[in-house]
Specification:
Layout lengths: L25 E2 L11 H13 L9 H15 L8 E4 L2 H12 L5 E4 L6 H7 L4 E4 L3 E3 L2 E3 L2 H8 L4 E7 L11 H13 L3 E5 L20 H6 E5 L2 H4 L7 E4 L3 H13 L9 H11 L1 H25 L4 E2 L7 E5 L6 H12 L1 E2 L1 E2 L10 E5 L4 H22 L1
Parallel strand pairs: 1-13, 3-4, 3-7, 7-8, 8-9
Antiparallel strand pairs: 2-10, 5-6, 9-10, 11-12, 12-15, 14-15
Amino acid sequence: MKYDFDTLRDRRKTDSYKWDVGDGELPMWVADMDFATAPEIIDAMLERTRHGVFGYTRLTDAWYDAYAGWWQRRHGMTMDRDALVFCTGVVAAISSIVRKLTTPNENVVIQTPVYNIFFNSILNNGCRVRENRLVYENGEYSVDFDDLEEKLSDPQTTLMILCNPHNPVGKIWDKGTLSRIGELCQKYHVTVISDEIHCDITEPGVDYVPFLSVSDDCRKVGIMCMAPTKTFNLAGIKTAAIYVPDKNLCHKVRRGINTDEVAEPNGFATVGAIAAFTQGEPWLNELRAYISENRKITEEFVKAEIPGMSVVKSEATYLLWLDISKIGKSRQVAPFIRKTTGLYLTEGAHYGECGDGFLRLNIACPKMTLYDGLNRLKKGIEEFKKVKN
């Protein structure tokens, strides 16, 4: 490999949210990689730093071209510059859009188990969560369309938040599934916010399907939120984008994020994104291969060493969804593992009640760290079983 993903980097003295843990603890929870970003991105930001003047920043042709070029090249989707909007983050975008497009007590549909901040974006804006629980059968997830249609058909339902690919279960939704969602949302006048921040972390040779690329229905009702931040480990520089093909809907989104003051880039937000999308492709290809190896290591380790646990099949994200339903509930298991071994995982219950039989494990780390985490996981589960029995 040209790039280094094996070096252990001490993040404890960097004001890291992930690594704000006790001595001896190992955090493998929040979606934050332990790899340095691509050297090409670092060089671009260092060059910007050396200039020494950090005034107000505007969007340039290079920023628009970087996004459009990346989605065309990597995902086969053509973008219209006028429909592309800067935002400081995907969560900021989602919360702002919920505020702009709903009134209090309206329904917003989400597909649980799902990224827990979706709940916050809905509830904090006075709306009601309506869960379309995913169907879990034979170790895989699918959409319950009968239930989804029932919830979308409620006149009080205004929005749906789609996670594509899905966090935490790692599912890449196929074209047929996305097309049906778009068709139903168009039928019942429901707008879809599609969170596609994990779209570039897929298995080598596997691509995701952009929601807005699927059909006219999807383009009429859809708002796509995206960013280089998960892909290139740039969350701290606050850079993202929203793509809205429908002109009237795009106008409302622009008004919302401007009202909330989350529409202006900082001095590194554009530089980092441009470098990522124009120079980061070779690094990303190697990253995906490395994460794929980590996924296989984890699957084989769990199968061989941790009876009663299984890894849910996934092709996207660097987050693995561990089925512990034969062992216990996440609310008891995760804190026990942390207390006894120092391994910090995310409780599946954070993603909805239907996630309580699962744990979420972040495998975006050097292999030495991964093996440390897996051995702690094994020990923690063994000790939990002793106490439980």
